[in-house]
Specification:
alpha/beta, Rossmann fold, UDP-N-acetylmuramoyl-L-alanine:D-glutamate ligase, ten-stranded mixed sheet, 20 helices, elongated, binds ligand NPW, binds adenosine-5'-diphosphate, binds potassium ion, kinase activity
Length: 491
């Protein structure tokens, strides 16, 4: 039978509980899963800390604790000194059976004092955590952090929500985390990703067909967008590869639009034109070679330009400046049924007016918005303030409100569509946090839209390829370097 880890879907704790139930109902007993989970924890511990002096298993009352008991008994069998501190399992449960396999007594949690050479196995709470940990757990978390004792977390560091990636209160900071069958949002959303340390996904013998979920939530990657990437054909000519327009701001802030336009060209749009206000045309000309210009000073100019049907996608916002004009242009673009990437000033222009923006772009989804945290808060204050919502929930709600694809940026960029599909991008390097890198992203997405990629897939691919270019550039990268390194993958 094919056993599996699922490396593309993300499973909320609720979705993973359904997987568990399905697997057990299929005839694989819970204790067997627990034994495999405990064994994978031991394998990780012994390969990462081969010189461990003492393995200290902190065990909670549920199945997370059960995995810890299995690990404790295996480690003892291997001759590793073992200590168990924590709570007794509830009687009659799989965790109780697991606990009975270990002869070491369970000492009170509060009695644990870290020693040099200890490695802590955190088996207190995993997917079942639903509130802040109590004072006793908080105290031991504090002592471990103070002593700098390395922690290997089972499933999730205790105190971290697997759904939101946010701590519910005091939280373990792990060096490594071993989780099972599939990642949870909490492993990739910030700050969860950092609190987990290095996360390993272990195969515990669940049949592949059962490691599935109805929730359309993925890790971002080519499994989402690969089949829809623009294909290069021998008969291609520049017009067949799409025409992207980037609206330029005034003289003082034209660089942002240039970065965006350069990225659009690099990602493969056949033509890229700056729509430039008359006062900035000369200055832009001095900087441009492959990128063309068209004079656009008013909504009427823009509407006239859009009579060219080849102009299929536009970017509006980077360095744009004039908020009223941004609103007018967005309306013209919506009426002309063009694809629009709205970024930066284009987003600020609609603060307090998201209803208006959603109405403009009703019907087939043609709008992508790319807010960073500040812009998201400005646009959707009520959603942003709701502490019960994860970043995925927030992006999904915003997407549904606007009938748009939302690219909610950050170290854990979330891409969400109005139909509920969502992806989390977890591998962008931190040196992307540099002025102008967001302008490059809007151009990448715009360039892919101009090449007729479907809108959600274009946004996912844009975020992934933007991150890949940054990884290639390395630390010290500037937005100019980044725009120069963006490339379409070979298809
Ligand atoms: N998915 C898989 O593939 C597999 C999963 N497995 C493992 O199962 C784990 C999930 O087990 P689980 O459901 O028993 O939950 P777990 O995290 O042990 O919590 C236990 C109980 O603690 C309580 N509690 C909650 N918060 C609390 C707080 N702050 N302070 C105090 N108490 C708190 C709450 O009970 P309550 O007190 O509310 O009645 C809760 O029910 C999973 O993480 C993985 O390690 C593997 O064994 C096999 C394959
Ligand atoms: N710590 C980080 N790790 C990875 N990517 C990041 C990080 N911080 C920001 N980014 C990415 O860098 C880009 C910054 O965009 P933005 O904030 O709009 O910058 P700017 O307005 O200067 O262009 C986004 O793609 C964002 O997701
Ligand atoms: K844990």
């Amino acid at each position: 039978m094919a056993m599996a880890i699922n490396t593309t879907l993300l499973f909320t704790p609720e979705a993973m509980a359904k997987v568990d139930a399905r697997v057990i109902a299929s005839g694989i007993p819970g204790p067997e899963l627990m034994r495999a989970a405990g064994a994978s924890v031991v394998a990780c511990l012994l390969s990462s800390w081969p010189n461990v002096a003492r393995a200290v298993v902190l065990c909670g009352p549920g199945n997370n604790g059960g995995d810890g008991h299995i690990a404790a008994s295996l480690l003892a069998a291997f001759g590793v000194p073992v200590l168990r501190h924590g709570y007794a399992p509830r009687s009659g449960t799989d965790a109780a059976a697991a606990s009975a396999t270990c002869e070491h007594a369970i000492l009170p949690l509060g009695d644990y004092r870290p020693l040099a050479g200890d490695v802590v196995i955190d088996a207190l709470f995993g997917a079942g955590l639903d509130r802040a940990v109590g004072a006793e757990v908080a105290a031991v978390i504090g002592r471990i952090a103070e002593a700098g004792t390395p922690v290997l977390a089972i499933d999730l560091p205790s105190g971290l929500s697997g759904r939101t990636g946010r701590p519910t209160g005091p939280v373990i900071s792990a060096e490594r985390t071993v989780t099972f069958a599939g990642l949870k949002p909490g492993h990739v959303l910030m700050p969860g990703r950092e609190l987990c340390g290095v996360t390993t996904l272990a195969d515990i013998g669940m049949p592949a067909r059962l490691v599935a979920s109805d929730d359309p939530l993925w890790i971002n990657g080519p499994h989402l967008y690969g089949p829809t990437l623009p294909r290069r054909e021998a008969a291609d000519h520049k017009y067949s590869r799409g025409h992207l327009a980037v609206m330029s701001g005034p003289l003082i802030s034209g660089g942002a639009a240039r970065l965006s336009a350069m990225a659009g060209l690099r990602i493969g749009a056949g033509l890229v034109t700056l729509g430039t206000p008359p006062g900035a045309v000369m200055a832009q000309s001095a900087h441009l070679t492959a990128i063309m210009q068209h004079r656009v000073g008013s909504s009427a100019d823009l509407a006239a330009w859009l009579s060219d049907p080849r102009l299929s996608a536009l970017v509006l916002g980077p360095g744009f400046g004039d908020l009223e004009k941004a609103r007018d242009y967005a309306k013209v673009l919506a009426n002309a049924r063009r694809y629009l990437v709205l970024d930066a000033d284009g987003l600020t222009a609609f603060a307090g007016r998201t209803g208006e923006l959603g109405d403009m772009f009703a019907g087939e989804t043609r709008l992508v918005i790319t807010p960073h945290e500040g812009e998201f808060r400005r646009l959707f204050p009520a959603i942003a303030e709701d502490e019960t919502l994860s970043k995925v929930d927030r992006a999904r709600q915003a997407a549904a409100l606007l009938n748009a694809v939302v690219v909610y940026k950050g170290a854990d960029t979330v891409i969400a569509a109005s139909d509920g599909r969502a992806a989390i991008n977890a591998d962008a390097p931190p040196w992307l946090a540099t002025a102008g890198s967001g302008d490059v992203l809007s151009g990448v997405i715009g360039g892919l839209l101009a090449q007729s990629m479907p809108i959600f897939e274009a946004a996912c691919a844009g975020v992934a390829l933007h991150g890949a270019a940054a990884s290639q550039a390395g630390p010290g990268m500037t937005a100019e370097d980044l725009a120069g390194l963006v490339r379409p993958p070979a298809v």
